[in-house]
Amino acid sequence: MATISTAQFKTGLTIEVDNAIWRIINFQHVKPGKGGAFVRTKLKNLRTGAVQDKTFRAGAKMEQAQIDTSNMQYLYEDGAGYVFMDMESYEQITVPGDKIQDALNYLQENMDVSIVQYQNEVIGIEVPNTVTLEVSETEPSIKGNTASGGSKPATMTTGLIVQVPFFVNAGDKLVINTSDASYISRA
């Protein structure tokens, strides 16, 4: 593994600290008037999803975690987890649901995703930035309500609840932003 110092920090970099794998969300070099410089960071644990603030001395060294991503296609859910297939080698892997909890609201059969691995351990999946989901249930539209520009909750077929405009009805297909679970447009 490569050793890096705090001077090489950048957003999105993955490091290994305290036997955990962390992705740097935010960092700031601080040089106080008195005392030594330090680096304030906000880190996300890639195994648990927890976000933590951590401070390092300037110049401190740590291991850079080598994260591998591979493009795979989601096939189906079985009793043990979720089955994905590598599109080049046709190998299939089963990922437990607790490893991909955040992405389950967007996962659809035959969807292409990126599997994130650390030393052959699956630590998560990355879904596309936008997905098209069907509305399974929402309140019916009331004539005249659509002009005011408000919103109402709608439940998608995957179980995700999204705030949508009044004109959206059950059965509509919508484009959803996966980073913040927001409505973008009709499909």
UniProtKB/TrEMBL annotation:
Pathway: Protein biosynthesis; polypeptide chain elongation. It is found in: Cytoplasm. Pfam families: EFP (PF01132), EFP_N (PF08207), Elong-fact-P_C (PF09285). Keywords: Cytoplasm, Elongation factor, Protein biosynthesis. Its main location: cytoplasm. InterPro entries: Elong-fact-P_C, NA-bd_OB-fold, Rib_uL2_dom2, Transl_elong_fac_P/YeiP, Transl_elong_KOW-like, Transl_elong_P/YeiP_cen, Transl_elong_P/YeiP_CS, Transl_elongation_fac_P. Involved in peptide bond synthesis. Stimulates efficient translation and peptide-bond synthesis on native or reconstituted 70S ribosomes in vitro. Probably functions indirectly by altering the affinity of the ribosome for aminoacyl-tRNA, thus increasing their reactivity as acceptors for peptidyl transferase. HAMAP family: EF_P. Belongs to the elongation factor P family. This is Elongation factor P. It comes from Apilactobacillus apinorum.
